[in-house]
Amino acid sequence: MVHFLIQHEDDVAAGNGWLSPRERETLKRFRVPKRLSDWRRGRWTVKQALRAFFGLEYPAERFEILPNSEGAPEPYIDGHRLPMGLSLAHSGNRALCALTGSDMPIGCDLERIKPRIPEFIEDYFTDAELSHVRGLPPERRDEAVTLIWSAKESILKLFQVGLRADTRTVGVILPPDGCFSDWRDIGIATSLAPDPVTVWKRIDRGMVLTVAVPGVPGVKPTALQLETP
Ligand SMILES: CC(C)(COP(=O)(O)OP(=O)(O)OC[C@H]1O[C@@H](n2cnc3c(N)ncnc32)[C@H](O)[C@@H]1OP(=O)(O)O)[C@@H](O)C(=O)NCCC(=O)NCCS
Question: Could you tell me if residue 222 is inside a domain?
Answer without folding.
Answer: no
